[in-house]
Specification:
mainly alpha, 4 helices, single chain, about 80 residues
Length: about 80
């Protein structure tokens, strides 16, 4: 898996936030556009693109996009 592709897919869940804002270290929950609806979109994207189910609690536990990426990689490999 490639983190840059993951970030690209992640950024596509946002309508108004410029894609250039998204980096591995961004605290995504601090983005103005972040909401429970965006979280659901991210969950669906991860399921569709990577075949991995993550929960709302797991998103709550993530701070950076890297945290989500590592969670997906871990679940995919187990």
């Amino acid at each position: 898996m490639d983190i840059n592709k993951f970030i690209e897919k992640f950024s596509q869940q946002f309508d108004e936030t410029d894609a250039d804002v998204f980096t591995p270290e961004i605290v995504f929950k601090e983005l103005e556009e972040w909401s429970s609806l965006t979280a659901l979109s991210v969950i669906a994207m991860i399921d569709d693109e990577y075949g991995v189910m993550i929960s709302g609690k797991e998103i709550e536990g993530a701070e950076h996009i890297t945290d989500l990426f590592e969670l997906v990689v871990h679940k995919k490999n187990n």
